[in-house]
Amino acid sequence: MTQISTLLVANRGEIACRVMRTAKAQGIRTVAVYSDADADAPHVRQADDAVHIGPAPVNESYLLIDTIIQAAKDSGADAIHPGYGFLSENAAFSQACADANIIFVGPPEKAIDVMGDKARSKRAMIEAGVPCVPGYQDDDQSDATLVAEAAKIGVPLMVKAAAGGGGRGMRLVHDQDEVPNAIKLARSEAENAFGNGELILEKAIIKPRHVEIQVFADSHGNTIHLGERDCSVQRRHQKVIEEAPCPVMTEELRAEMGAAAVEAARAVDYRGAGTVEFLLDQSGSFYFLEMNTRLQVEHPVTEEITGLDLVALQLKVAQGEPLGVAQDDVTLTGHAMEVRLYAEDPADDFLPSTGYIDLWHPSEMARIDSGIATGGEVSPFYDSMVAKIITHGATREDARRQMVKALSQTALFGPKTNRDFLIDALGKQDFIDGQATTAFIAENYGEEGVDLGAHDFDAFAIAAVLQHKLRQQAAHGLALNVNPEMLDWSTNANLQTVTQYASLGEATDSDGAIHVHVKQPGHYHVEGAGQEVQIALLAITGDTAKLRVNGRTVDAIYHSGGRNLHLALPQRSLSVTDMTGLSAMEDMAGGGTVVAPMHGLLLEILVEQGAAVAKGDKLAVLEAMKMQHEILAEIDGTVETVAAAAGNQIAADDLIMEITADEAGEEEDA
Q1: What phi and psi, each to the nearest 5 degrees, are found at residue 295?
Q2: Which SMART domains would you find in this protein's record (predicted)?
Q3: Active site residues
Q4: Which of 119, 167, 278, 484 matches a 20 to 30 Å C-alpha distance to 32?
Q5: pLDDT digits (tens, 9 = 90+) for 492-520
Q6: Distance (Å, rounded) from C-alpha 665 to C-alpha 57?
């Protein structure tokens, strides 16, 4: 047995912070690695030492095996924890650690090699007798063979990258004519994300549950499972809400799935933490999906219901010690939920959102694993998940209610987030009833993004009152010898301020003007858009406020910057700009102006200047946060100019091309 004295965490963000937390608790010295983009990131500040490993792009920093190994040597690390993503399921990295006499906190090279390839792993599971989804997973990777095999399998069909995970390199096909393009996109995305364009095909099982089993094995012949997690609520094949136990699990089914997962681990001489993922159909049949040979993002829900620290177990096994936990020792207590807070725009097909973090205000009533901080940045170079919120209760409903409350007390201002969507999803009846499947988001929100409806006027009224108060406080700070008790006081009973919001039209047909009438200090009568509301400001601090709105108490989180105000209310978030006194701004965007929807790498431009295009035609392909996004024409017309070049980084709202609308189209619009 070899004791770990210094642990290098070959990752970033919340998982790096999470691993370091346990390592530090065990007296292990920790080392962070960081790219140019992460020089001042929380995981760097949390570590005992840190090593710079290169520029922001992952293939120039976090994916460089030799650089990571050298960082471990230079910092005196005798072990490396890979976290998840990046090099965590890279067999060559595991072997490189062994060659350098550095402990790899993960399974041996053989297990990663087999299970990290969906084709090989599926063949191995078929041989081991583990139930598998019908499909194609052979070596012939020609487009012609894949198209032919797809026709044999039939639609609906999943085209999937054999390597990697996280929903990348994956396409759901409903029409045989879509297969060639799905193969092209999936292969390109897989090559860019994993350096491996091999694909497999699987019959798509419609509306299954995504249920996974946590397994653990040591080098002394002990292999156990720690129960299951239900990860059915997903968007773009990436998990959004996870929970344990699975709402429809029975003791008999758990024993059967657990035994299959343990057998899968034994088939590849597994060691350490791993997760065997299954699809569970409505009849109770389950099928092997893949095995993740690493710690999962959603491991906290298993920790909450078992009382075990999975990172501590990983370190224990990596040091050659026995698990110390037998299958009969595993008990599941209560219910746990986890939601993933993504920097993304649910209303715009969940496109990633990047930028500076004006305020990170996490709830204090839940476990929150995060790797962000106020003043930091959500970079376009990495995954869009920025934090995880975890709750645990005696029952599933206890855990769900705690989660809704914790989310209502959490705010991330700057980039857009899925916070409001998560609150809304947790309140859907089929989720409350434990009936959510992988079709949950599509069934409840459609295929074109999430529309949560217009904001209530109350939200704009609260924003106007807060801006009134904040400006008043700012003015008072510049004044001399003014008693604070005199604020909001006037001999003129009609004292009022006017705020004009450009976005108020989403709720009403008003011009956005809101009148805040001061009744007495701290009490306001607010009018606008033909509506009225009474607001009392009970308390205000640096980023929170308590108000009484029409007799009901409301807690708010806010951040103010000049004319802009970010506001998070218990159910909805709102960002407004006070346009009072400013001239109207022309809308520079239009159907003929094609701009980047987010920061990213412009992989392809598919049309040239002078080309005729029709609405829906593919114009360009943008890669952001390890996903590829097709940019489509919004009008019929002719490409007037191409302002961007493929292969270059491009910022959100940067011009890509201009399209002149067809005259016929303009006449029809008129």
Answers
A1: -75, 140
A2: Biotin_carb_C (SM00878)
A3: 294
A4: 167
A5: 555 678 888 865 544 444 567 888 888 88
A6: 42
Q: How many CA atoms lie within 13 A of 459 on its CB side?
A: 23
Residue 14 corresponds to which amino acid? E
What digits encode the pLDDT tens for the residues 319-330? 999 999 999 999
* pLDDT for the residue numbered 285: 92
Q: Say if residue 517 is exposed, middle or buried (CB neighbours under 10 Å; 0-12, 13-18, 19+).
A: middle
The partner residues of 559 in beta bridges, in order of sequence, read: 566
Q: Which domains does the chain have, with CATH numbers?
A: 6-105 (3.40.50.20), 134-203 (3.30.1490.20), 211-445 (3.30.470.20), 457-577 (3.30.700), 593-669 (2.40.50.100)
| Alpha-carbon span 638 to 636, nearest angstrom | 7
- What is the side-by-side order of every strand in the sheet holding 385-393? 286-292, 272-280, 209-217, 223-235, 238-244, 335-342, 385-393, 367-370
Give the count of beta carbons closer than 10 Å to the beta carbon of residue 640.
Answer: 13
Q: How far apart are CA 553 and CA 648, in angstroms?
A: 50
Rounded CA gap, 268 and 475, in Å?
69
Radius of gyration of the chain (CA): 27
Q: What is the pLDDT of residue 668?
A: 47
511/500 Cα distance (integer angstroms):
8
Nearby residues of 336 by Cβ (< 8 Å), 6 or more positions away: 243, 244, 300, 301, 302, 304, 305, 390, 391, 392, 393, 399
List pLDDT tens digits, range 253-264. Answer: 999 999 999 999
- State the amino acid at position 608 in one-letter form: E
End-to-end CA distance of the chain: 78
Query: What is the separation of C-alpha 268 from the centre of its chain, rounded to a whole number of angstroms?
Result: 31
Whether the predicted model's global pTM rises above the 0.85 cut: no
In this structure, the number of other CB atoms found within 10 A of the CB of residue 475 comes to: 11
Whole-number Å distance between alpha carbons of 379 and 422 = 22
d(CA 442, CA 423): 17
Q: What is the pLDDT of residues 183-211, one digit of tens each?
A: 999 999 888 888 889 999 998 888 899 99
Phi/psi of residue 648, nearest 5 degrees:
-110, 150
Strands in 157-161's sheet, in edge-to-edge order, are: 135-136, 199-203, 157-161, 170-173
By CB atoms closer than 10 A (0-12, 13-18, 19+), residue 326 is exposed
